[in-house]
Amino acid sequence: MSISAGVPEPSPELLKRAMQLRAAAMQLGQTDNEQRRSALMAMAMSLQASAEKIVQANGQDLENARTEGLASALMARLKLDQAKLASAIEGVKQLAELPDPLGLRQLHRALDQGLVLERLTVPLGVLGVIFEARPDAVIQIAALAIRSGNGALLKGGSEASLTNVAIMEALKEGLAKTDVSSDCLELLTTRQESLALLRLDGLVDLIIPRGSNELVRFIQDNTRIPVLGHADGICHLYVDAAADLPQALRIAIDSKTHYPAACNSIETLLVHESIAADFLPLAIPAFHQVGVRLLGDAASQALGVEEAASEDDWATEYLDLILSVKVVADMDAALDHIRRYGSRHTDAIVSNDQQVAERFLRAVDSAGVYHNCSTRFADGFRYGFGAEVGISTQTMPPRGPVGLEGLVTYRYRLRGDGHIAADYGDGSRTFTHQDLPL
Amino acid sequence: MSISAGVPEPSPELLKRAMQLRAAAMQLGQTDNEQRRSALMAMAMSLQASAEKIVQANGQDLENARTEGLASALMARLKLDQAKLASAIEGVKQLAELPDPLGLRQLHRALDQGLVLERLTVPLGVLGVIFEARPDAVIQIAALAIRSGNGALLKGGSEASLTNVAIMEALKEGLAKTDVSSDCLELLTTRQESLALLRLDGLVDLIIPRGSNELVRFIQDNTRIPVLGHADGICHLYVDAAADLPQALRIAIDSKTHYPAACNSIETLLVHESIAADFLPLAIPAFHQVGVRLLGDAASQALGVEEAASEDDWATEYLDLILSVKVVADMDAALDHIRRYGSRHTDAIVSNDQQVAERFLRAVDSAGVYHNCSTRFADGFRYGFGAEVGISTQTMPPRGPVGLEGLVTYRYRLRGDGHIAADYGDGSRTFTHQDLPL
Fold this sequence. Notes:
2 copies of one chain form a homodimer. Chain A folds into 2 domains: about 10-220, Aldehyde Dehydrogenase, Chain A, domain 1, CATH 3.40.605; about 235-375, Aldehyde Dehydrogenase, Chain A, domain 2, CATH 3.40.309. Helix content of chain A is about 40%, strand content about 20%. Chain A has 15 helices and 17 strands. The first copy, chain A, has a 7-stranded parallel beta sheet, sandwiched between helices. In chain A, helix 14 (about 355-365) links the parallel strand 12 and strand 13 (about 370-375). In chain A, helix 2 crosses helix 7 (about 160-175), helix 3 packs antiparallel against helix 7 and helix 5 (about 80-95) runs parallel beside helix 6 (about 135-145). Chain A is globular and about 75 Å long. In chain A, about 55% of the residues are buried. Chains A and B meet through strand 2, helix 10, helix 14, strand 13 and strand 16 of A and strand 2, helix 10, helix 14, strand 13 and strand 16 of B.
């Protein structure tokens, strides 16, 4: 998607589709766990039955992309072969087996005799999902939406349009045999529509962008609908004076190189000056050996880092085998640096001084703050959530890796027997506020 | 505040103050419960000691307002006498005694041996609060902020400027004797500053508007910072075919007249057509007797409602002794009406048919859905939260009446012993995901 033009008003046709989707989603929100579980199994089976067709459509998309000279990294993401599809279908089945995120009672309280308050988890309503390239994301997001009782309006990359249409057809055919309406999923196909989606306040409850930082930032800047996700992920590893150096190096290498394109990889290494002269001569050759290019401040250059880091480097998410290195006078300088340049995603300290570590854990205001382990653990699957919607760097919940619980909200229910507020104002009745079992 | 002009960029001076406030708030976020409790008691004592000065300043504000011909309703809200001040001070002391919303462990899980994940509640950071007229709100919000470990940037109405300055001086003097820095509270005094506050993304984490619907809507439309609150509160009461009519009337009268200016009062009464001919002849004189003006659709006019409701009426929050009345063919028509015109605030049904009531409780997508009781119970104090930040009608949490928990977020902490992600990719280690006691 080219993301430069203004955001148009939704067309009457889009509004109509969105309202139809919303109505279907309201019905979906009232289904029980078994109905939604069955719907996911039917989606999985239908994808299986249409596998040939989907892979063929993808072949056509790939051919078109090749003709148009799409970059090879994007071609790899676009490709959906039998193996990738099978793995996506397996993901749908796994989602079906996850615990129901709906109907959980979070609060249960008698306000007075016969006046009972509950707080229950309910679906958000309709998700708007905008993503680039990867067509398997359509499958994953559609399954997450239905599992959590939400409708979804999806817009994929134009490169994958034939694949996406084939996938959506299969998903809708699957749903048609279940208690969940196939109207709960809608695919947007034009760029105009996907922009107008940003204006569907009141019809779309949450926007989930899956793609480049540029895409996410554009969406955040152009909608009043809440956006789940993050633009930059500038994560830091601080190697403290009291670090075990081999451990620090092992964690630094993993945090940078395990998957450099991931948002939870580190971009900057901060090293306490008192151990810099021991640590950097150890770390520099180790990083070079695994192909990491290092950019450093003057102090780390003096200790062997060849290239200079510019001011911009501290604020850059490389998503690549590049790491900026800075020697800091003490932990407070490290904290200042993280506060100034960080994305409040995930930051870590390596130290054997428990007091120092605890201070770091308290002081860093990021969604994840780690001690003596790799930042790469910031992930919904690794946290044990079973599925991940994305990672949020906003301040308000949901924050950090978000599982199915990020796709639900709650509702208060109050049941009485003719109770009125005036009786509590004039003293004829008083609130008891007695908590009941959940 | 006149809310028409564009939103200016923050001045360097405002940015400096906001950064100073943020730094102080970061320190505040690391205080313990006892330190914040003591800070609130010191604030209360200091307000007490400055009571004379505050009331005098308020007298001057009132005099100026009188000269400028402020409406009498606003004059009443502006007035802060000894009694009102004492009650506000009592509120601060009560907040001090509420359970600490910080440091609550929401998740505790061993991802593997020696690799332990926690999710803990932490402050949001800095609150931006914009409110009109009522100077006692400064006291309440400042206390809520400090109790929950947040800094606050406050902007009150210009009518109350002398009172607000006197209150803020007292609060800061109180804090100066405690472990909480007096820099944690800042008062904005100019209109330029309060507009620029909307642009302080990254320095302000949540904006809380306290004032007219117009003010709230302007803020929602002009900031990327999350806004806690609601513009309209159009609440409905649906009187079902199976309603106990005297109970329905009692609940309707309370929901409309107990405090008509409140957001949780009903604006529209929906009546099932099968009982309309019995209910309305009973309800119309009862409403007239308590001074409620009724506006109705054709069917309710045929049953005695004198004035016609226009299309606009269904979408109007009267905040006054006015009620629109509509006869509906069945509950689905009531649900459609609520979906179309409601604010997703609080809606209620009166019915003795449990099945019908349960369907209503499931189908209405509002923060509060009630059965056989008044909508006026939608309130943090009545829910037993001890304090109320406001009522949110947004979809994402926090939703409905928001207590101190709406002013906190959470953070993940992961503690390891050299754990790296690569070991889990190559199968040399596997995640155990063992939940530990909270």
